[in-house]
Amino acid sequence: MVLLKWLVCQLVLFASLSHAFTDYLLKKCAQSGFCHRNRVYSDNIAKSHHCYYKLDAQSIAHDPLQNSLSATIIKTIPRLDGADIAVELPFSLSFLQDHSVRFTIDEKERTVASGGSLLASQRYNETWMYAFDEKFHDEANKTNFPELRFAKQEHSTDSLWSRLSSFLTHSNSTTDTIHLQNGNISLEILTEPFQLKIYWQNSLRLIVNERNFLNIEHQRSKEENFAHVLPEETTFNMFKDDFMYSKHDTMPLGPESVALDFTFFQSTNLFGIPEHPTSLRLMDTSQGEPYRLFNVDVFEYNIGTTQPMYGSIPFMFSSSSTSVFWVNAADTWVDIKYDTQQNKTMTHWISENGVVDVVISLGQDIPAVIDKFTDLTGRPFLPPMSSIGYHQCRWNYNDETDVLTVDAQMDANEIPYDFIWLDLEYTNDKKYFTWKRNSFPNPKRLLSKLNKLGRNLVVLIDPHLKKGYEISDSVINENVAVKDHNGNDYVGHCWPGNSIWIDTMSEYGQKIWKSFFEKFMDLPADLTNLFIWNDMNEPSIFDGPETTAPKDLIHDNHTEERSIHNLYGLSVHEATYDAVKSIYSSSDKRPFLLTRAFFAGSQRTAATWTGDNVATWDYLKISIPMVLSNNVAGMPFIGADIAGFAEDPTPELIARWYQAGLWYPFFRAHAHIDTKRREPYLFDDPLKSIVRDTIQLRYFLLPTLYTMFYKSSTTGFPIMNPMFIEHPEFPELYDIDNQFYWGDSGLLIKPVTDPGQSEIEMIFPPGVFYDFESMASFVNTGADPAVKIIPTPLDKIPFFIEGGHIITIKDKYRRSSKLMKNDPYVLVIAPDVKGHAVGDLYVDDGETFGYQRGEYAKTRFVLEDGHILKNVPSHTPDNLMDIHNDVLRNTNIEKIIVAKNELQRDIALKDSVTIKQGGEERSFPTKLSHEDDNKIIIMNPMLDITENWELIF
Ligand SMILES: *[C@@H]1O[C@H](CO)[C@@H](O)[C@H](O)[C@H]1NC(C)=O
Ligand SMILES: *[C@@H]1O[C@H](CO)[C@@H](O)[C@H](O)[C@H]1NC(C)=O
Ligand SMILES: *[C@@H]1O[C@H](CO)[C@@H](O)[C@H](O)[C@H]1NC(C)=O
Ligand SMILES: *[C@@H]1O[C@H](CO)[C@@H](O)[C@H](O)[C@H]1NC(C)=O
Ligand SMILES: *[C@@H]1O[C@H](CO)[C@@H](O)[C@H](O)[C@H]1NC(C)=O
């Protein structure tokens, strides 16, 4: 929820576009000093072929304590008088995880602190401490470093080191090459020019600095600058910023950008670096603007551009399963150039400051590199079951009566929901941590009413704090406000007018922030259904440059906003998460939290959404690649506002948006304050029934969805899952981002995203597919994906289950997810052409951290030969009986639906099935019916998901 109304009013003369984001507020590369300088430098280097950076072979050292290799890269600036300037750039390299290499490049002059100044003179090198999972923090203090090794396991690092030294001694050329091997990865370090070549099973996957775009703008004074500039460089905006909205930037440290090129081999398909409103497969930017990663508030963003958005994840991978994680939270631009001739892709990464800190991971397949990335940056949190149900939001539900009316009407109209949301206006005069007294006189009463059906309330709390009330006063008194470049509390404009910003980059700031929640959420022990939404945490600042914070603000007493800009939002939502988690610790409740700004690592504690979209078909369409992009970048819990935040959607758009949105991992309807009310029960039929059925379908699918969230929380596996991850063998699928799978469940979906679309084309890989509703099947017998036309009347969602999968659903309408807890399971089996199928189910209490203590059940269903169904539990809680009545209340299978293909057609109608269990075989009387031509139904087989059994039908 955000509106640049304030700005738009101020700049009404420029506001010529009807509802597009005001582009002129954001820099183009040519207007950004460091971006332009690096693009110019790279163009000129490509022509001159000069190389100014070499690794000094004599400087190579092995630090056994850190298990890393260190060396010095020398940047030489030639001078006519022969007094060349040599800049020393410390380089380090280590194997971080199996199949991951990390290297860093710093600047020696700037590794020592110069006292006195407000600003640290060191290059900021702590981004990794926010981005990496806590378990990798131990490694920082050099004690616990077991994964790291240089050689194949049979070699000790010492023997490797002696081989390395002897190699260097006997080397004869000016270009030394150092070889390192670690399992499937091998690495060559070239010294002049400095390069890294990285191989997977001896096949070249990546070259670092292949094109010599490495550029570290080293420290120099403005006066001496002329002596430090290379012939290929331009001095554009090195010590000032002349962009209209950021010309007050004091740029106290002058030019300090870092840039590097990476060439991916055996691939012309790159993915990642969200958030951008573009295709899933990244575009070639050589004729346009680079992708920019810079967290900003972009109300009604323009579709199809590489402009920055609310969140940034500087992680990119190729279809050859090679990834680059650029661990830098400063303003960053990325150029991409595909070379189909040579089957390679060149990328150029440019950040405004900080150090070069890069993790390169390789793997057998794409899920393996996503797994590495989420091992390093933390797994997506396992959300409470209720939070993967339906969320009803609006700016604003005005008062308690309004909320309770929506609540009652949803039930009266049989529309399940779990969360209702309060936007900005619930506060007293936009002061966070307060309630508008007349409208919400008794928040505890409201929470307690919602709690009866297990429902939850989310309220908005942003990091900007109105000046002049107890919360902002306390922030000022405790000295934990973000500071301006002079060290005074920074004051900017946001919703409440003049505001200050909490500095959650400071540990003490986090503590103060938490104390506000402790007071605000001081609830009776049985009320644990209040959750938080951190909006505007890019941060959004209405009168700030590019709608955000001036880059020369100061955090934590010494760190420039410039260095940590893309991390700030993460620091806000992590502090919020920690606060809520500790407040609910007595009930062990898992928090749900929504953030708008994010960075690599945000997935550990928050969900996000695609921000302020518009109720048009184009925004519906773009939401799918946007959600997919986050899903492949380790942050799957994302959705888009249904049915468009701004403006009023048509009934047809509403229907289609719910039908698409039901597949978003985060399923929320939201609307701008200026729009007409659109709670689903207000619609006329058939729209009302269509939306109700759609939301009910989401609830029926919750067991499957929750299982996917569990998988994601252990491996980072995408929930909304691109075609190419399930079928990497078909090159034509790398471009497809309008249809997708749901995790590994076999559900294949193509939402309708155009008006008046009575049929759509869907692409099917080889195999058998069943229309989920009718279970009517068809087979793609070819060797390649084939297109099929699917009729799509307004009430039809085109979705199929691929042969070979088994999913688990519940099929009874309940008002909320909590009320479904007692319902038995229904298995839906979709055999492949050979009669095989497999599917997983994960179950826990859906609320607490008990699963971390083993309180969950996990099982795998396997169909063999078309008629033998086995259940193979892989985990049942030790105290199953104790917790059976509560946690896993009903673990029974009530119904089994077997989709029929050619094999099943011969299965005879019977009055019994055979069940093998505990070494015994028995005949079990049950109704086995051919419901229609498409499916067999087995009713009440009396089987439990936590037990081992075999059912033969
Ligand atoms: C950052 O760099 C300084 C100077 O080289 C070093 O002392 C410090 O340990 C580094 N910090 C981190 C977190 O890497
Ligand atoms: C390393 O970090 C861990 C956890 O952060 C801490 O317990 C331990 O004392 C640290 N070790 C050293 C040598 O600093
Ligand atoms: C130097 O080494 C290269 C291989 O690294 C070899 O091809 C070349 O013959 C060597 N030159 C001399 C003079 O030994
Ligand atoms: C590019 O390389 C990949 C991996 O080796 C290969 O599968 C693909 O067919 C190649 N593409 C082209 C166009 O040569
Ligand atoms: C910030 O730095 C100043 C000057 O070095 C020092 O006096 C002050 O105590 C510091 N404040 C905090 C909160 O660390």
UniProtKB/TrEMBL annotation:
GO biological process, one term: N-glycan processing
Record-annotated Glycoside hydrolase family 31 TIM barrel domain positions: 380-708
Principal place of residence: endoplasmic reticulum
UniProt keyword list: Endoplasmic reticulum, Glycoprotein, Glycosidase, Hydrolase, Signal
Signal peptide interval: 1-20
Any one GO CC term of the record: glucosidase II complex
SUPFAM superfamilies for this protein: (Trans)glycosidases (SSF51445), Galactose mutarotase-like (SSF74650), Glycosyl hydrolase domain (SSF51011)
Compartments, record wording: Endoplasmic reticulum
Domain Glycosyl hydrolase family 31 C-terminal per the UniProt entry, residue ranges: 716-807
Domain DUF5110: 835-865
Domain (Glycoside hydrolase family 31 N-terminal) ranges: 90-335
Keyword Glycoprotein: yes
InterPro entries: DUF5110, Gal_mutarotase_sf_dom, GH, Glyco_hydro_31_AS, Glyco_hydro_31_C, Glyco_hydro_31_N_dom, Glyco_hydro_31_TIM, Glyco_hydro_b
Pathways per UniProt: Glycan metabolism; N-glycan metabolism
GO molecular function, one term: carbohydrate binding
Record Pfam families: DUF5110 (PF17137), Gal_mutarotas_2 (PF13802), Glyco_hydro_31_2nd (PF01055), Glyco_hydro_31_3rd (PF21365)
Membership in a protein family: Belongs to the glycosyl hydrolase 31 family.
PANTHER family in the cross-refs: ALPHA-GLUCOSIDASE, BCDNA.GH04962
Protein name according to UniProt: Glucosidase II subunit alpha
Source organism per UniProt: Saccharomyces pastorianus
Phylogenetic classification of the source organism: Eukaryota, Fungi, Dikarya, Ascomycota, Saccharomycotina
Gene designation: ROT2_2
